[in-house]
């Protein structure tokens, strides 16, 4: 039997209290596993359980973290998000995002209209940053992949091929996300469907006399001297300087960067 990894993470910022470690570790025992509640959890749909340390799987631990964090936060705050991801399916999701990005490269105006700019409210898009701050547009402009594809389909601006692929991406997001929940602040959040994000910048927007893309060198397939870069998501599936747009990062570079013979702002040439 092959055991694949699982990752627990938040596409948004988490509160400073962290996770409910006491609640999590209280559910790990050196005895046999057993069910301790007859109620089905609202997120996982499972009955609360104490797990034996001798047979605890990554999926079990992830499930406990999700259940305990939801129970700990949902009555206290409305802005928490947490998800458990199945890493076996991440590669498939990345490849589909690359594929739809290449198809969208000549539809930039429609793409930017779907994304929005300046202040975007949560009822218009599911995003995991404060869009009223320009600094967050530079560093944290994360939009939900599932919701973004939903809006591509609803917009009626794109071809049937793009819409079909957007539907495939939505289904793949559901495969990647084992469990997820979002507080009521995130109005468009759909538990166990949304909860995985994509960096979607407003690269042409002016910030202190320069386009925002010039400040985003860290989002790069190459090493960046200021720290960052060398991101596998940006690097995989692309060949530098072959003048062919091949993945999501290269589509962004195609849209936002300048041609100066040295790779532009981020020293990368698609």
Q: How much β-strand is present in the residues? A: 15-25%
The largest pleated sheet is described as:
3 strands, antiparallel
Instruction: Determine the number of helices (DSSP H or I, runs of at least 4 residues).
Output: 9
Overall number of strands: 10
Helix content: 25-40%
Task: Tell me the span between the first and last alpha carbons.
Answer: 41 Å
The side-by-side strand order for the widest beta sheet comes to 1-5-7
Can you tell me the overall shape?
A: elongated
Average pLDDT confidence is 95
Query: Which consecutive residue ranges, at least 5 long each, have pLDDT under 50?
Result: none
Summarize the helix and strand pattern as letters: EHEEEHEHHHEHHEEEEHH
Spatial extent as radius of gyration: 20 Å
| Estimated structural class | alpha+beta
Tell me what you see in this structure.
- The chain is 34% helix and 15% strand.
- Strand 9 and strand 10 (210-211) form a beta hairpin.
- The protein has helices at 21-25, 58-73, 90-104, 108-115, 134-139, 145-155, 160-176, 232-235, 248-256; strands at residues 6-9, 28-29, 34-40, 47-52, 81-86, 142-144, 177-182, 197-199, 206-207, 210-211.
- Among the domains are: 14-80, no CATH class; 203-270, no CATH class.
- Strands 1-5-7 form a 3-stranded antiparallel sheet. A 3-stranded mixed sheet has the order 2-4-3.
- The longest helix is centred in the middle third of the chain and has 17 residues, at 160-176.
- It is an alpha+beta fold.
């Amino acid at each position: 039997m092959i055991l694949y990894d699982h990752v627990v993470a938040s596409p948004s910022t988490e509160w400073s209290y962290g996770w409910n470690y006491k609640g999590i570790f209280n559910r790990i025992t050196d005895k046999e596993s057993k069910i301790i509640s007859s109620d089905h959890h609202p997120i996982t749909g499972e009955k609360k359980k104490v797990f034996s340390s001798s047979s605890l799987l990554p999926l079990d631990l992830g499930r406990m973290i999700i259940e305990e964090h939801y129970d700990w936060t949902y009555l206290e705050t409305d802005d928490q998000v947490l998800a458990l991801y199945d890493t076996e399916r991440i590669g498939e999701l990345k490849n589909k995002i690359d594929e739809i990005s290449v198809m969208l490269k000549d539809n930039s105006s429609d793409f930017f209209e779907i994304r929005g700019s300046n202040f975007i409210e949560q009822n218009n898009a599911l995003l995991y940053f404060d869009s009223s701050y320009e600094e967050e547009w530079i560093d944290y402009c994360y939009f939900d992949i599932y919701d973004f594809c939903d809006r591509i389909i609803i917009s009626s601006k794109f071809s049937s091929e793009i819409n079909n692929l957007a539907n495939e991406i939505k289904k793949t997001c559901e495969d990647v996300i084992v469990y997820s929940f979002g507080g009521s602040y995130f109005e468009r959040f759909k538990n166990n469907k949304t909860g995985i994000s994509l960096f979607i910048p407003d690269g042409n927007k002016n910030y202190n006399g320069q386009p925002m893309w010039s400040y985003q060198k860290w989002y790069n397939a190459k090493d960046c001297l200021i720290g960052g870069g060398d991101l596998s998501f940006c690097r995989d599936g692309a060949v530098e300087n072959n003048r062919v747009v091949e993945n999501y990062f290269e589509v962004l570079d195609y849209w936002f960067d300048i041609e100066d013979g040295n790779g532009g702002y981020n020293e990368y040439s698609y």
